[in-house]
Amino acid sequence: MADVAERAGVSIATVSRALSGAPGVSEATRARIRSLAQDLSYTVSPDAARLARGSNGRVAVVTPDVAHWFYASMLDGIVTALHDSDLDVLLYEVQEERERRRFFDELPARRQVDALVLIALPISADEHRRLDLMGVPVVMAGGTLGEHPHVRIDDVAAGRQATAHLLAAGHERVAMINATGHWTLEYAAPSERLRGFTEALHDAGLEVDADLVVHQRWGSTGGAEGMSRLLSLTRPPTAVVAFSDEMAFGALRTLRRAAVPVPRAMSVVGIDDHALADVLDLTTVHQAVDEQGREAGRLVQQVVQDGGARSPYVTLPTQLVVRGTTGPPPRRLA
């Protein structure tokens, strides 16, 4: 930097301001300094430039999983949105409970980032207070967190859409395979999608049969076991709403092994529109996970660079995608 300052006939401080983009330097002087710096193969340290601007230039993203398609798609959307910004991403995976406790106890990103993004991670009141100690904006992607900016879908509406589609086809004995998990804090999606299922039935003048709502561990195995329980009933359902596409995949496996034709004898609808849903011809409710990530990335840029988000609460729509696993109930196929 001293060489550049000597050749330009200016102070080292002026060179620093010119190369970091800081104000206080004329455009002509800035252009001359940058040209000399290029001739001398001088590059600015990103950390030094950020320090001069009073920012870290980093965003922490905390996710329960980096491999699962949902979290990976959300993360990809966030990174894509931040690609052309001056913000780098620090990634923290808190898959195990002990990793989660350590993150909130130690707050490793404190003083290192300008904002924090949580991907569909429910947190306790105490953890919320711990986050406030970081003193940086927090954005929730795939859920809500108090008054912090967020982007999400309406899970109640998704449950209603899936159920209403089956009711419109003429089904009256409609079941739901809902999700439970290993998490200690409750995710909102299972209760909200169940609420949508229940509301759709009530709107159709139908009561909820407790035997037709089963709760299984989240995943394809849980979906398979849930469908086995439903098939064992004296009066099985004619249609099933699965909490997620992955649970629907498991349900379809059970039906295939039991030689129950789909959709002629049983209709199945999922929620999410997993990449394999199209391959398996699964009727589902689509949510744009990658777009939620991009919206979260845009919110982060606004709160960091503009001091606040123009529309801090974003709810993206869901759409029913009708494929080959749903149809009318058996009695209507005469």
From TrEMBL:
Annotated PROSITE patterns: HTH_LACI_1, HTH_LACI_2
Residues in HTH lacI-type domain copies: 1-53
InterPro entries in UniProt: HTH_LacI, LacI/GalR-like_sensor, Lambda_DNA-bd_dom_sf, Peripla_BP_I
Keywords linked to the UniProt accession: DNA-binding, Transcription, Transcription regulation
Coiled coil feature spans: none
Molecular-function GO terms, alphabetical: DNA-binding transcription factor activity; transcription cis-regulatory region binding
SUPFAM superfamilies attached to this UniProt entry: lambda repressor-like DNA-binding domains, Periplasmic binding protein-like I
PANTHER family in UniProt: LACI-RELATED TRANSCRIPTIONAL REPRESSOR, LACTOSE OPERON REPRESSOR
Protein known as: LacI family transcriptional regulator
